[in-house]
Structure of Thiazole synthase:
Amino acid sequence: MSKDDALVIAGQTFQSRLLVGTGKYKDLDETREAIEASGAEIVTVAVRRTNIGQNADEPNLLDVISPDKYTILPNTAGCYTAADAVRTCRLARELLDGHDLVKLEVLGDQKTLYPNIVETLQAAETLVKDGFKVMVYTNDDPIVAKQLEEMGCVAVMPLGSLIGSGLGILNPHNIQIIMEAANVPIIVDAGVGTASDAAVAMEMGCEGVLMNTAIAAARNPVLMASAMRKAIEAGREAHLAGRMPRKKYASASSPLEGVIG
């Protein structure tokens, strides 16, 4: 990817547009290898499920995913109220020496893991006022997405489909509307199943894609991470190149003028 085409979030510049999670791997070695293969620079960590220093006698994820190499993005996965999400972000800030870039998600139920928008809006408002730089997981509602941006969130992250479903982007039209109105990065978060899903998101014009299960639940996570890296790059280049217009009928690959005979 060209260095002139960087992803900028809250003033920070990143060359990779692939953001990855750290859950569901068989062990920390596989986690490290897959993340290295992905080329990701932003790595998200579920503070309520992963040890990043709060449990001194347990393996620390930061021993294999170093903050010196990656931008650690604490997230509030597993939170179902605004209060819990805010508390979790404040804990992460303490554990990470004042780190203020966080991924907010407030879930509605355990079956769908669909976002609870009322609680998400409340948490976002509190966190922004508290000085956090909030990247926020939401549904694909363009009105809500704009509200979150206007509230001060530094990136809006609409779902492609349900978390961990692997169904791909089910409502590209809404995401397109969200992007057209946005002045902050729009990053597809949740639902990607394979490399073609990631490429589609990038071809649409999304600024990036965040994924976890699509890599961690693959038969070969390290190889899938490499595939996702290439898909993100190819999709971004295709978006920048501009696809040919769709046509109803055939069009010869070569000009018809000057054809012999």
Summary: Helices lie at 28-38, 82-95, 117-129, 142-151, 172-181, 195-204, 213-216, 221-241. The longest helix spans residues 221-241.
